[in-house]
Amino acid sequence: MHISRLSKQHKGHNSTHQTFHQTLDGHDKFLDLFDSNPTNFNHQYLQSAELSSPEHVQSNHEPETSNTYDLNQLTFDTASDPATGSTDETELDPVIEPQMPIRKSTRPKHIPKYLEAYQLDSPHQTNANTSHPITKYLSCHQLSPAHRSFTISLSTIFEPNSYQKAVAHSHWKEAMDIELKALEDNGTWSIVQLPSNYHAVGCKWVYKVKLNADGKVERYKARLVAKGYNQIEGFDYQETFSPVARQTIVRMFFALAAAQNWRLSQLDINNAFLNGELTEEVYMELPQGYTFKREYPTSSRLVCKLHKSLYGLKQASRAWNSKLTTSVLKYGFKQSNSDYSLFTMKTHNGDFIALLVYVDDILIASSSIQAKNDVKGYLSSEFKLKDLGKVKYFLGLEIARSPEGISICQRKYALYLLEEHGLLGTKPASTPIDYNHKLVKSSDEDKLIDATSYRQLIGKLLYLTFSKPDITYAVQVLSQLMDKPGLKHLAAAHRVLSDWAGCPDTRRSSVEAEYRSMAVACCEIMWLKSLMTDFHIDHPEAVNLYTDSQSTIYISKNPVLHERTKHIEMDCHFIREKVMAGLINPLYISTQSQLSDIFTKGLQPRQFHFLMSKMNVHDIHSSS
Questions:
Q1: Does the keyword Transferase apply (predicted)?
Q2: I want to staple 409 with a disulfide (CB 3.0 to 4.6 A). Which of 335, 352, 398, 434 is the partner?
Q3: Exposure of 321 by Cβ count < 10 A (0-12 exposed, 13-18 middle, 19+ buried)?
Q4: Are residues 357 and 477 in the same domain?
């Protein structure tokens, strides 16, 4: 320890927030005293010891013959020598160590590089690098306790994953009772003893909170599901295929309804799969929470013999679709040959009505209210259904109708997708596709350890293309890399960036690619014309098909066959037949105005937004 001697004029330089450090010249003498008689030392000095704190620091008004030592936070009165009783001739004063101020760094703070793509507008950041931080507009401090509790409850929706967790809540128990009652009223099963040569499939409860378009809770739904993965093909099930409506026909259904001013309404079949009749003999274990209506022998193994289909069975969807199709055809509808999910008819009064079926969701388009009500009455007599009125929310699509037409939006679905992947605060990109970006298959070193999240994201982005056709090409390219996706592919999926137009994997020349694209478009045109016939709409005129390749137009109109075109597959040449028959009219359009470029290549932001304006896609949140 350092030994210092100060004159008397330095006394008094003390503070309530300073610590005094002092040692004695007779340090060895002090230790000898303690070693010779530790008991006497403790008795004399520890009685006067007190904790050294800012309140006990000695002031400059003390007698000059008294010094204070801060040794292990104990204060001793050392006015005299404990051994001789005499006073030390040299007065020692404490050394005052000034308190050093805390130095705060003046270096500018920067956001970490891995967070540069995000808008960090959180209430904890008072110096947000934005002109309009979120704390200026969003706060819960002025909410009442009741309203604050309600706000918190909106984000605490509980969906149990087991029967034991669900039965503890009254609303889930009520939902299970409703489901069991519906199964019994429908005659879904009968309680029997399991035959010796049959096996019983298991079952489980699945719980789901049904939400409205605005995110509010609509109802709590419990569904009893059979474990169909225990079924044996050829023994307790045969065929499983069931048709559903394609995105193209759903979009066309709304487009024709807007153009023809048809009335739209929506129906939902309650417990739809329970209406399908089984042709196979299927047995199922008793569900949890089931109570017997009468007594059965306790020695036998009781199971449910299924008479009607149940959710989870391999053939459940097919059995329900067969039942619905039979009932609709019996009323007088005609099933479309272009799409088996579409049913149309024309009444004796000349009214037109169409049904579009997607599993248990049914869209009705009619030219008169009476025709629509008649169909609803018939279907309600055949099945238990819910009349949802005007179409507002269909298959995750938010539908809005005005005198100008029908708009389709997937706002809720897009927000859910962003929240699921932690991208709600991401910085928006000017285009979904980088102009010069190239994606190729990843090597074994770069591939993702678990590609499940990537594949799930691509599947959800594919559904998002229904209302965002501008990301169609990017999602299509990313879906080709699901075999061995890498980190760069996952990053590209988060930004929906890719470019396949100049990919070295393609083997086609520019003219051949354009010609094949025209052939694919021709197939789609012919299918749509056939579909319009089912809607009782004629289109005798030739359909204009635009391309920015003069060579492609020349090949489609003339039987050209030379070294540069003979390698084109012969199945592409049927477009020439449609052109000669007057069904297709190929026309030239400049590359700058070619709308299909947004689906086939990466574009500069200016060109991208120009083509977006031609697609009739609008930002409803834009200020302009």
A1: yes
A2: 398
A3: buried
A4: no
Contact 82, 44 (CB under 8 A): yes
| Domain tally, the chain | 4
Q: Per-residue DSSP letters for 401-452?
A: EETTEEEEE-HHHHHHHHHHTT-TTBPPPS-SS-TT----PPPTTTB-S--H
Please name the residues in contact with 325: beta carbons below 8 A apart, sequence gap of 6 or more: 335, 340
First to last CA, the chain: 76
- Residue range 547-586, pLDDT digits in tens: 877 777 777 776 655 444 554 555 556 677 788 888 888 8
d(CA 515, CA 512): 5
Is 180 in the same domain as 325?
Answer: yes
Question: What per-residue confidence (pLDDT) applies to 545?
Answer: 85
Distance CA 150, CA 141 (A): 14
H/E run at residue 584: strand 584-588
For residues 379 and 254, membership in a common domain is answered with yes
> How deeply is 254 buried, as exposed, middle or buried, from its count of CB atoms within 10 A (0-12, 13-18, 19+)?
buried
Q: Look at the alpha carbons of 127, 132, 133, 139 in this order and tell me if their dihedral is positive or negative.
A: positive
| 208 vs 130 pLDDT, higher one | 208
Same domain, 62 and 171: no
| 218 and 250 fall within a common domain | yes
Can you tell me whether residue 287 is helix, strand or coil?
Answer: coil
Burial of 34 (0-12, 13-18, 19+ CB in 10 A): middle
Q: Are 560 and 515 in contact (CB under 8 A)?
A: no
User: Between residues 14 and 316, which one has the greater pLDDT?
Assistant: 316
Q: Rounded to an integer, what distance in angstroms lies between the CA atom of residue 48 and that of residue 76?
A: 7
Structural domain ending residue among the three candidates 444, 470, 495 = 495
Q: Percentages helix, strand, coil for the chain, rounded to the nearest 5?
A: 35, 20, 45
Q: What does the alpha-carbon distance between residue 226 and residue 315 come to, in Å, rounded to a whole number?
A: 11
pTM over 0.85: no
Give the residues across from 364 on adjacent strands: 265, 355
- By CB atoms closer than 10 A (0-12, 13-18, 19+), residue 243 is middle
Domain boundary among 96, 111, 137: 96
β-bridge partners, 407: 400
Structural domain boundaries, residue 24: 8-96
Determine the longest span between alpha carbons in the chain, in angstroms. Answer: 131
Same domain, yes or no: 488 and 579: no
How is residue 74 written in tokens?
């104990």
What pLDDT, on the 0 to 100 scale, is given for residue 64?
Answer: 45
| Helices 369-382/316-331 angle, 10° precision | 130
Structural domain contains residue 152: no
CB 203 within 8 A of CB 163: no
Which residue is associated with the tokens 């024309």?
Answer: 346
Label the pairing between strands 277-284 and 200-201.
Answer: parallel
